[in-house]
């Protein structure tokens, strides 16, 4: 399957929305829709596989930063089923980001995420 840039953009927007989803059941359902069963998420703080583990990492980040939201910071760049994008964690009420990261996402043949590999570019002191 060849994934178009517009499809990759939509996938990344849905991915960011999943990190912002406050309801655990809705978040778990979104993870299942976005990721392959054996999908992996890896960043400097976590390395997990499978829907339950990915949902747990997201829940942990949400509990660590209540009152904050993830947002895309710039354009998505993608080719051959691999994309990269920058995101930031900002106060929901507005203000400067407290965390900035860059992710590389790999899409499987079914159009769902097979892996996301994150890098932290800015972290709180």
UniProtKB/TrEMBL annotation:
Any signal peptide, and if so, which residues?
A: none
Q: Which GO terms describe its molecular function?
A: isomerase activity
Q: Which Gene3D superfamilies match?
A: 3.10.450.50
User: SUPFAM superfamilies from the xrefs?
Assistant: NTF2-like
Taxonomically, the superkingdom here is Bacteria
Listed A to Z, the keywords are:
Isomerase
Domain called SnoaL-like: residue spans = 12-113
Entry protein name? Isomerase
Q: Which organism is it from?
A: Phytohabitans rumicis
